[in-house]
Write a structure and sequence with these properties.
Oligomer: single chain
Strand order of the largest sheet: 1-2
Distance between the termini: 28 Å
Largest sheet: 2 strands, parallel
Shape: globular
Number of domains: 1
Low-confidence stretches: none
Mean pLDDT: 91
Radius of gyration: 13 Å
Amino acid sequence: MDPEATDVAFVSADGAAIQATVLLDLSHTAKCLAEVLEAVGFSKRLASRHQRQFVEQHLRKGFERKLLR
């Protein structure tokens, strides 16, 4: 089974949890709440921890941690 072909989204505003997706080889599933809401046609102003930039920041940290272990 190809894990990238699975329709799964890991949605979190917890930086450590987002970083863990990298260690579990699931970083491709990390999404922010803003993306999910937009995909279903809902838009609302959300805090920065619910934006794509927050997810990307913690994915980068996860990859850094993975390289250093």
